[in-house]
Write a structure and sequence with these properties.
The protein is of the alpha/beta class. It is built from 4 helices and 7 strands, in the order βαβαββααβββ. The protein has a single domain, classed as Rossmann fold. A 7-stranded mixed β-sheet has the order 1-7-6-2-5-4-3, covered by helices on one side.
Length: 137
C-alpha cells in the first residue's frame, strides 16, 4: 500500500505527478472518498499532466466525460454519484470503456462495485485533520 500526502492545492500537481509515476502502466483507477475531499480536483490535475486538451469537469449528470489528449489518446472520466440503477451503467456500455486501453478515472465506484474490474486500481482520498489530503493506493 502506497501513500502520497499533500498539504495545499499548490502541491496537487506534484502529488499527481508522483501518483502517475508510481502507477506507470496502470490506466484504470477507482477513486473512493467522501464528498468534497477532492476526487474531481485530483482527476483534473491527472488529466492536465496527461495533456488533456479538453476542459475537465465533473460528469455528475452525464455519468461519463471523454477527454482527448494532444497525442490523440482518450481519457474517460466517470461519476456514478447520481446513478439510480445499475442498468444505467450497462446502458452506457461501461465495458467498452473499462476494458479499453485508455485511461479511466471512476468516481463513486462503490455504487457499482460489482462491475469494477479486478485490474482497476482502488484509490482512496482522505482529508486529514490539518486539511491536507492523503492518497492511498
Amino acid at each position: 500500500m502506497n501513500r502520497i500526502t499533500f498539504n495545499k492545492l499548490d502541491d496537487i500537481n506534484k502529488a499527481a505527478q508522483q501518483f502517475l509515476l508510481e502507477n506507470k502502466g496502470v490506466k484504470q483507477f477507482a477513486f473512493y472518498g467522501n464528498m468534497g475531499v477532492g476526487k474531481t480536483t485530483f482527476i483534473k490535475e491527472l488529466c492536465k499532466i496527461l495533456f488533456s486538451e479538453d476542459e475537465v469537469t465533473s460528469p455528475t449528470f452525464s455519468l461519463i466525460n471523454e477527454y482527448h489528449t494532444k497525442m490523440g489518446d482518450k481519457i474517460y472520466h466517470f461519476d456514478f454519484y447520481r446513478i439510480n440503477d445499475i442498468e444505467e451503467v450497462y446502458n452506457i456500455g461501461y465495458e467498452d470503456y473499462f476494458y479499453s486501453n485508455n485511461y479511466c478515472f471512476v468516481e463513486w465506484p462503490e455504487l457499482i462495485e460489482e462491475l469494477i474490474p479486478d485490474t482497476m486500481l482502488k484509490v482512496s482520498i482522505n482529508m486529514l485533520t490539518d486539511d491536507s489530503r492523503e492518497i492511498i493506493f
